Amino acid sequence: MAIRVIVRSVPECYHVLGIIHHNWTPIQERIKDYIASPKSNAYQSLHTTIFGPGGQLFEVQIRTMEMHRTAEFGIAAHWLYKRDGKPDELDQHLGWFRQLLELQQDTHSPEEFLEFLKVDLYQDEIFVFTPQGDVKRLPKGSTSIDFAFHVHTEVGLKCQGAKINGRIAPLHRELKSGDTIEILTAAAAKPSRDWLSHVRTARARQKIKQWVNHEEETVSLALGKEILAREVRRRRLELPDENRLARAADTLSLADGRGLEVAVGRGDVAIGQVIRALYPELPNDEIQEPKPTVFGRVIDRIRLGRGIKIQGVDGLMVRYAQCCQPVPGDPVVGYVTQGRGISIHRSDCPNLLTLAADERRVDIDWQESAGEAFAVRLAVTGEDRRGLYADIMEAISQTGTNIRGADLHTKDGTVFGTIYVEVDNLPHLGKVMKAVRRVKGVTEIERREAPPNART
To answer: Looking at residue 399, which CATH number applies to its domain?
Structure first.
């Protein structure tokens, strides 16, 4: 049951609160003073929950008439009922409104604005301090990243760490009321997409998304220019100028030539479709991908020895997926990511099942490149004995393999854990696993997928 008490002044609010607590037992953790520390939307009131007659819980709100008008009508109440208010007073009440206006200008769609608005409106709040003693109001569950962006956007963008109450703490740790936060910055520090899963405030989320999207667009633009130039040269066509790019973008319902190149880099449009839009005046046989000659196939075979070729184009920006850790010799599939080039997965990688859009998958022709090593995670199980760990490491070293790390444990006479090794190719990996199987006490060794949170 809820009760609201309206009084004439702020002192009377606290007087009524004292009377209520004198007569009935309050629940300490549910006493909230929004008069001393108003919510960000200017809401003020005293809240308490008590054990009333018969042990029933009562929630009591105590406020003045002016506070009640603000709670009912929002910040508009300061125009309706206080037209003679001082500029500084109005400015204080309109701070939250200005934040909303800034947020609206930075968002790109009504849905995005509504999402951010919900984040700020429907959360309890905490109060934390800067090293200088200034109070900062944040939603409950906020982290040091939220605090950094609340102080200033540039502080958030250059944040590399934080001290909570004088001690180094992870950026993702939730803050509590009363914490003192010091943000550590560096000129070379940059936001991470992973931060989005650790922030609670709309401002921090919007600024991080804005920065990540800009970075991904820059990478996609460079990749798109490179892919487009290679495909045009392979067809022996003239490089398109800005006017031709703009006309092609219009044909494909894209904003402009730059947007076209970004879309190519992201894999949003097929390269064949782009070529047809760029050169609509040419017959199809002139813009089709040329068939390789005998000499060309020989040259391609030589080039393949240097690394990866993707649907006829080599030298593109690629990265090896950490979820399945492919090595040369594995059957592989390429997946066009947004802004990070082409990610190479083993064809049996479980993550491929969760990656939508089959049109983003590309064929990979991958051959070993001299001097390149690949990390692989191996799971080992065995029967504990004296010297087993040393014998396993010695067996791996005898194959000429670099050991990057090991995490082995013994429990109830059983050894289990993982070993991280660097191999040149699939046969090299097979040689390592065969050597470990020969070690006395080892019962099983297998290639293990990376942890679920590994990036694809």
So the answer is: 3.30.70.260
CA-based nearest residue to 278, from 221, 226, 240? 240
Return per-residue pLDDT of the chain as tens, 456 residues: 789 999 999 999 999 999 999 999 888 888 888 888 887 667 889 999 998 887 788 899 999 998 888 877 665 555 544 444 454 555 555 555 556 666 556 665 666 666 555 545 445 778 889 888 888 888 888 999 999 999 999 999 999 889 999 898 888 899 988 889 999 998 888 888 888 888 988 888 888 988 888 888 888 888 888 888 888 888 888 888 889 999 999 988 888 988 888 888 877 787 888 888 888 888 876 666 665 554 444 444 434 334 555 544 444 567 777 778 888 888 888 877 765 567 788 887 877 766 655 556 776 767 666 667 888 889 999 988 888 889 999 999 988 889 888 888 888 888 888 999 998 888 889 999 999 999 998 988 998 765 544 444
What pTM did the predictor assign? 0.46
* CA quadruple 235, 237, 239, 244: dihedral, nearest 10: -110
| Backbone torsions φ then ψ of 55, nearest 5 degrees | 75, 10
Number of domains making up the chain: 4
Residues present in the chain in total:
456
Does residue 34 lie in a domain region? yes
Residue 396's SS3 state is helix
Could you identify the residue written with the tokens 């953790």? 29
| The 313-314 sheet, strands edge to edge | 313-314, 308-310, 364-366
Task: Print burial letters for 372-401: b (CB count within 10 Å at least 16), e (below 16).
Answer: eebbbbbebebebeeebbebbbebbeebeb
Among 50, 78, 106, identify where a domain stops: 78
Q: What residues contact 281, with CB distance under 8 A and at least 6 apart?
A: none
Q: Do 375 and 346 touch, CB atoms closer than 8 A? A: no
User: Do 68 and 12 reside in the same domain of the chain?
Assistant: yes
